[in-house]
Amino acid sequence: MGGGIKTRPSVTGTRLRWAAAGLAFVAELTHLWAFAHGFVVFPTRGLPLLPVAAVQGILAVGLLFGAGRWTIGFGIVFNVAVALGWAFTRSVGVPSGGVLVRMPVGPLDLVATATEVALVAALVVMLADPKSYLSSRG
Amino acid sequence: MRITRRGFLKLGMMAGAGIVLPVGAMGAAGARLGAANSVTSPKVQPFVVPLPVPPVLDPVRTDATTDYYEITQRSSGQEILPGLKTEVWGYDGIFPGPTIETRTGRKVVIRQWNELSVPVSTHLHGGRTPPESDGYPTDLVLPQGYEHGASSMHTGHGPTGEHSHMFKDYAYPNEQRGATLWYHDHRMDFTGPQVYRGLTGLYVIRDEVEDGLPLPKGEKEVPLVVSDRTFEEDGSFFYPSIDPSLEGEPGVLVSQHNGVLGDTILVNGAPWPILEVSNTRYRFRVLNASNARDYELELDPPPPGIKPFVQVGSDGGLLEAPVHHDRIRISPAERFDVVVDFSRYSVGTRVTLKNREEEKGPPSEVMRFEVVRREKDESTVPEKLAPEQDFPDPNAAEVTRRFRFSSSLMGMWSINGKTFDPERMDARPFLGSTEIWEFTSSSSHPVHVHLVHFRVLSRNGGKPGPYDAGWKDTVYVTSGETVRVAARFSGYRGRYVFHCHNLEHEDMMMMANFEVA
Questions:
Q1: Residues whose CB falls within 8 Å of the CB of residue A105, separated by 6 or more in sequence, listed in order
Q2: B432: Cα separation from own chain's centroid
Q3: What is the DSSP string of A99-131?
Q4: How far apart are CA B67 and CA B175, in angstroms?
Q5: Chain A contacts of B409, Cβ < 8 Å?
Q6: HEC letters along B154-192
Q7: How far is C-alpha B325 from the geometric centre of its chain's CA atoms?
Q8: Are A34 and A28 in contact (CB under 8 A)?
Q9: Are the beta carbons of B410 and A101 separated by less than 8 Å?
Q10: Model ipTM value
Q11: From residue B194, how far is each of A30, B161, B227, B517 by CA, in Å?
């Protein structure tokens, strides 16, 4: 995944990277929780959350072990897309039977979205100052 | 290729986070569904418990025009299964609640106290009721000190109805024919679980026409409130709510998405009861108070030489003439007023009321009658019951509205592709107007219209079905069917609802508004 930067990350940078990994992992767990909850209500309410959770988990591990530009860029795009998707389904709705059904806002998805927004912010900071944060092993 | 220890650890953690955890979450979801599906009620010996009859409630006071009642909705322990206590939410703490008996034209005011932990709304099903007393789903009676918001989880709307605290007075003018009505909870999003816990009761209106008929009376006029429940091992009701507190997310687990079916059949709150009868005619006011189960009732053995069920009334009161049936198909919320003649059986015969919707298993039987004595019978079923009815004339209808009942991708149920929204008006019939409403359905739905009674005009363009006689307020629309009904929107202006009376469908938004303008 990306890379080419040979500078050793700073201590602050490493901490931010770990924090980003933690946020991604929290996002995974909340999505898994929401999946388990949504799936028992109706499969289509849960299943889309499963790949999101898996990707967040892989991203978390990638960040933990030192990420490159590609990983961070992907993380930003992915989490922005997930947050926008959440906003769309709660404000406009999900196409269903020819109409848009607005999904309810629940505490779990609020936590997940807040985590993703924080994760995007962290990843943007990392991308803006790559020397401090990026790993050569990314 | 050589993999470093760090690389190996990274791959392992990626596999854990990307595969193992999601698979574990799937397992957890599957386990919850599996656990819910595996609940079966404790075994009960059928046809042992005597059929109870709900008590008739006395008014707390009366005046020249009105009877005043007070009912407290509260929880209590009730022995439904022998030897076990079930916590019920009952009107006056009993399930089914006390029966209200009144007469046409006599006003009834019921003060409904809420001593439960959640909001309630009480609907008089079949009542021609002013909108403020109709039990609109968001017209809630909040319990004392209720701190939670009363907004709808489904629609995201805040409170859109009238909220009362601790009690509400419901006024019923009873300006309608004699008929078997019932009252039940109608709280937005949570009608299913609250009715399941016991919030149902009968409401019988009598009139002079009925008084003048030689139908079976007194002890030989018996209400049969048929419902189904599943019980936990300790005797408590099992209802697969997503949130059993009934304060969070509404709805049921996906395995019961099409409606909650119990494995124990109750009649008047007793499991597979037995009623000792004489060899005479009995009049049974049958109400299907189940959340989602429909029944095809049959007598086994059938009485020799005659059709077993003589239907004398429907949802809206007496028929013009009796209709003879081999079986009665009754969907949730429908009422059938039938006479059974036990004189065709010899003393000692045990007659089982079967449910032919189920081929075998506990729900295939409902209750038993045992003919235990001979008696003189002075009752008859005359060939003419009620005067010719002023049914709405479909030719006078200026408007035909079409409503398609279907499911949606996200687990909701919809009417014309729309889920319920208290703030959206879906039809505006004029006061006094006649309209034709056409219901189509992708699966089976008992369709109930508040305020009005209607006449079934046709099924799939043909004649009405054998169970469509008389005035109806609930009509069973089976999969792929189109049912046309004619209704006259008289009585009161205001906002009402119509909906599927499969209560899980109703809670999952298969409901719409109409306003009599």
A1: A90, B156
A2: 28
A3: EEEPPPP-HHHHHHHHHHHHHHHHHHHHHHSHH
A4: 14
A5: 44, 94-97, 101
A6: CCCCCCCCCEEECEEEEEECCCCCCEEEEEEECCCCCHH
A7: 22
A8: no
A9: yes
A10: 0.82
A11: 31, 19, 14, 32
Asked whether the beta carbons of residue B28 and residue A36 sit closer than 8 angstroms, the reply is yes
- Indicate the average pLDDT of chain B: 95
Residue found under tokens 């959340």: B291
Is the pLDDT confidence value at A96 over 90? no
Do residue A104 and residue B6 have CB atoms under 8 angstroms apart?
no
Query: Is some CB atom of chain B closer than 8 A to the CB atom of A36?
Result: yes
Chain A hits for B28, CB-CB cut-off 8 Å, are 36
Which residue does chain B place closest to A97, by CA atoms?
Answer: B408
- Least reliable range by pLDDT among A11-25, B57-71, B129-143, B245-259: A11-25
B283 strand-pairing partners:
B221, B339
Q: Which of B17, B33, B411 sits opposite A28 (nearest CB)?
A: B17
pLDDT digits (tens, 9 = 90+) for B442-460: 899 999 999 999 999 999 9
- Predicted confidence (pLDDT) at residue A110 exceeds the cutoff of 70: yes
Supply the pLDDT for residue B320: 98
Residues of chain A contacting residue B254, judged by C-beta atoms under 8 Å apart: 39-43
Residues on chain B touching A45 (C-beta within 8 angstroms): 410-411
Among all residues of chain A, which has the CA nearest to that of B413? Answer: A97
C-alpha–C-alpha distance, residues B86 and B456, integer Å: 40
pTM of the predicted model as reported, rounded to 2 decimal places: 0.91
CB of A23 closer than 8 Å to CB of A119: yes
Mean pLDDT of B453-480: 97
How confident is the model over B351-365, as a mean pLDDT? 92
The span from the CA of B343 to the CA of B455, in Å, is 34
Question: Which one of A25, A32, A42 makes the best mutation probe of the B interface by having the most chain B beta carbons within 10 Å?
Answer: A42
